[in-house]
Prior knowledge:
The complex is a heterodimer of chains A (115) and B (112). Chain A has no helices and eleven strands. By secondary structure, chain A is an all-beta fold. In chain A, strands 2, 4, 5, 6, 9, 10 and 11 form a seven-stranded mixed β-sheet that branches. Chain A is globular, with a radius of gyration of 13 Å. In chain A, 37% of the residues are buried. In chain B, 35% of the residues are buried. Chain B is globular and about 40 Å long. Chain B starts with a strand and ends with a strand. In chain B, the strands form three sheets. In chain B, strands 2, 5, 6, 10, 11 and 12 form a six-stranded mixed β-sheet that branches. Chain B is mainly beta and 112 residues long. The A-B interface holds A 4, 6, 33, 35, 40-45, 48, 55-56, 58, 91, 93, 98-109 and B 4, 6, 30, 32, 34, 36, 41-46, 49, 51, 90, 92, 94-105.
Amino acid sequence: DTGVSQNPRHKITKRGQNVTFRCDPISEHNRLYWYRQTLGQGPEFLTYFQNEAQLEKSRLLSDRFSAERPKGSFSTLEIQRTEQGDSAMYLCASSRGAGGENIQYFGAGTRLSVL
Amino acid sequence: AQSVTQPDIHITVSEGASLELRCNYSYGATPYLFWYVQSPGQGLQLLLKYFSGDTLVQGIKGFEAEFKRSQSSFNLRKPSVHWSDAAEYFCAHNNAGNMLTFGGGTRLMVKP
């Protein structure tokens, strides 16, 4: 396994701009998750996919956020009209299957700073 | 609502000393519990997990954790801390295969 890859590692943007992050999961992992981590806090769940289907979205995922996983492989997370409150680390994870025993493997994250 | 609590925000220990990081969870059914470590600028690395069976579980880097249902705890321990263990540690549980719920984290500093 080559690990979960996230790009870019860092993104600085001005308030009101749109940003897009990419996540490449471990190959053959059918589940992909997005989390957000603000400074000094634990990660918070945003959404997850099983293959290309988005199965659950957190209330944290406002209308300005959209996530896709078009072919069941990589995923993108887009934030439209960014706000300063969107500044955070965005973490992606993937897992092989479902159930409480599935282990989620995390990427290094994309750190977003909104000026 | 399910929750995970890490009562200690910061802990400082001397190198070579023992370590215990506390984690409490509120969950009615069988918990799927995890400890992850996050070094600065890095993602989360899994240290160990508990699903069922032996309540003392061993992980990587010499860490272990003990599940105590009566106390709703899953504390992480290490007998002798190394300077490279300085990082942030997160306890988490999995609600039956979907999202992980994380505690707020404990930042560990190691004194030489």
